[in-house]
Amino acid sequence: MKRLIDLVMGTVLALLSLPVVLLLAAVSALNLRAWPFFVQTRIGAGGVPFRLVKLRTLPVSTNHYADKRAIESIPLTWVSRTLRRTHLDELPQLVLVPIGRMSLVGPRPEMRFLHEEMPASFARRRTEVRPGCTGLWQIGHQCSGLIAEAPEYDLHYVDNRSLLLDLWIVWRTVTMTIHHRTVSIADIPAWIPQAGTVTALRLGQAHPELEIDPAA
C-alpha cells in the first residue's frame, strides 16, 4: 500500500510542484550565479547509494559534503536562508519518489561519511525502509542537529511505521512549514498505534548499543 501511495501521490506532487521548482531554480541561479540544482550521493534503503537532488542554497565554493555544523558558519543570502528554513530547497526530491529511490515519508537519507559514523545497528535499522522527503526526525525538536544525536526519532518510525503515522507526519510537516513548530515523539496522538519503543529507549532498555542519553 505504501509503495502504491508513493507511486500515485509522488507522481502527482512532482508534477504539481514542477512550476514552483523551475521558478525557485531561476531565483537560486540569479541569487548564487551558479547552476541551481545541487546533487549529492546519499545512502538509501538497504544501504544502497543514490543521487539526491536539491535546489542550491550554498555558494559553489562550499565543501560538497559539508555537514550542518560546518554550514552554520557560512554566511547565507536572504534567499538561501528562506529556501532552507521553509525546506523548499527539498522540493526536487519529489521526483525520486515515483521512481522508487525515496518515499514521501521515511528517515532522512544521510551522506555516506555520516552514515558510516553511526552505530552499525542504528545505520542498519534506519535503512530498512526507503528514505523520505519528510519524516519524524525531520519535523522533530532535534532537527537542527545531526541525525545520530537523536536516533530515537528514526527508530520509533521504523518500529511503528503505518499509514496513520505517515499521514500525521505529512500534516505536521505542512504545519511546521507554516508555523515553524517542531514536535516531540510524545506529541504523536494516542490513536496512532505505537509499540512503546520510545519508553524503552529512554530507559536504555532498547538498542542499548546506541548509548542513548535518557534525558534526550
TrEMBL record:
Keywords: Transferase. It comes from the Bacteria. Its EC number is 2.7.8.6. InterPro entries: Bact_transf. GO terms for molecular function: undecaprenyl-phosphate galactose phosphotransferase activity. Residues 2-178 form the Bacterial sugar transferase domain. The keyword Transferase applies. Belongs to the bacterial sugar transferase family. This is Undecaprenyl-phosphate galactosephosphotransferase. It comes from uncultured Acidimicrobiales bacterium.
